[in-house]
Structures are given as structure tokens and as C-alpha cells.
Structure prediction request, 64 residues.
Amino acid sequence: MQNVQASIGLLVSWGGFKSSVDREKATQFFRVRLWDQGDRINQVLEHYDKLDEDIRAKLPLKRI
Prediction:
């Protein structure tokens, strides 16, 4: 984040995070967000209708 002068970061890990990273999550809440596989899937499902048509074509989902 410092190298690109970003004030907020997003770290995505499909395999989860070590306990030491999880302990830091609360202290860095306003600077860094951590997403694991569940967060990623929830965000895709929540915002699927707003995604570009090209992305939806590559990830065809149907509500049931």
C-alpha cells in the first residue's frame, strides 16, 4: 500500500489467513480488508446483477 500511496487495501486469500493475520484484522480494519473464499463468493452473489455482461457470460449463474 505504501509503495502506491494507497490509503485502503484489500487482501484476498482463497485459502484463508494465518491466526497472526486474523489477530491484526481488528486493528487494521479501516486500512486493510481481508476477504477469504466465503467473502469473495458472498460479494459475487450480492453484486452479480451489477457485473458487466462479459463477466456474467463467463460466470453464468441462475437464481433459484
Summary: The mean pLDDT is 89. The first helix runs from residue 19 to 25.
